[in-house]
Amino acid sequence: MIIAIDGPAASGKGTISKKLAAHFQLPHMDTGLLYRAVGYAMRDDLDLPNWEQVAIEKAQTLDLAQYDENDLTTAEAGIAASKVARVPEVRAALKQVQIKFAQQPGGAILDGRDIGTRICPDAEVKLYITADAPTRAERRTKQLNERGVNVHFDEILAQIEKRDADDKDNPAGAFFVAADAHLLDTTKLSIEAAFQAALQLVDGVLAQKKSSS
Ligand SMILES: Nc1ncnc2c1ncn2[C@@H]1O[C@H](COP(=O)(O)OP(=O)(O)OP(=O)(O)O)[C@@H](O)[C@H]1O
Ligand SMILES: Nc1ccn([C@@H]2O[C@H](COP(=O)(O)O)[C@@H](O)[C@H]2O)c(=O)n1
């Protein structure tokens, strides 16, 4: 079974994906980390005249295991990720990694921006997790502050809104709600309530598929 989970920055898709993965005992891939790793690897190279070619080479030779997740989950790495994500050949290289992960026996859960629309268009279940931008910024600010990173709500909100807009109008991307995705707005939900709502949606789709097969 493949579960595809998409949504905007800091919407809680990773949190829900990890909990669903534990529940269904499926491997999980946070595909944003792939783009973040390429962005982080490019941190000193993004001003080079040939930065796109350098990014393509880094994506084609990416070994995610070589990166520390703390380095990848910074606001700066998110901004760099959004930039390299606009290069079609970077997306093509990372698509191969994602498809290989999705096709392992028994299935998988992947979360990102284009999982239901492009990477796994035939996924059994597709969820689109969202929350309003101030709520997402508040959660991300709290997350970074708790890690000792001194950021303010206003700057994080501005970054999230810019990243959402850039991702949505990325001509190389496919960040939109898949026609067969189930929408879940977590703005007013606790983590546990959001997980239970997601689980209910997944169970509902699986029950419907079982009864019609
Ligand atoms: N429903 C919720 N209520 C409160 N906090 C939440 C909720 N969902 C997630 N969070 C918190 O918000 C932060 C961001 O969540 P998470 O990393 O799951 O988002 P994401 O969509 O995967 O982010 P990214 O865009 O970076 O991939 C985390 O600190 C998480 O614990
Ligand atoms: N499937 C994906 C996943 C991510 N991106 C780009 O990476 C950025 C960081 O992603 P997070 O999920 O960690 O926030 C994101 O803003 C996108 O630009 C992507 O294009 N496709």
Automatic annotation (TrEMBL):
Residue numbers binding ATP: 7-15
Recorded catalytic activity of this chain's protein: CMP + ATP = CDP + ADP; dCMP + ATP = dCDP + ADP
Annotated localization: Cytoplasm
GO MF, any single term: kinase activity
UniProt-listed Enzyme Commission number(s): 2.7.4.25
Any one Pfam family match given in the protein's UniProt record, by short name: Cytidylate_kin
Enzyme class (EC, first level): transferase
SUPFAM superfamilies for the chain: P-loop containing nucleoside triphosphate hydrolases
CDD domains, per database record: CMPK
Residues annotated as domain Cytidylate kinase: 3-202
Gene3D superfamilies associated with the record: P-loop containing nucleotide triphosphate hydrolases
Domain of life: Bacteria
Keywords: ATP-binding, Cytoplasm, Kinase, Nucleotide-binding, Transferase
HAMAP family reported for this sequence: Cytidyl_kinase_type1
Similarity comment: family membership: Belongs to the cytidylate kinase family. Type 1 subfamily.
Protein name: Cytidylate kinase
Organism: Maritalea mediterranea
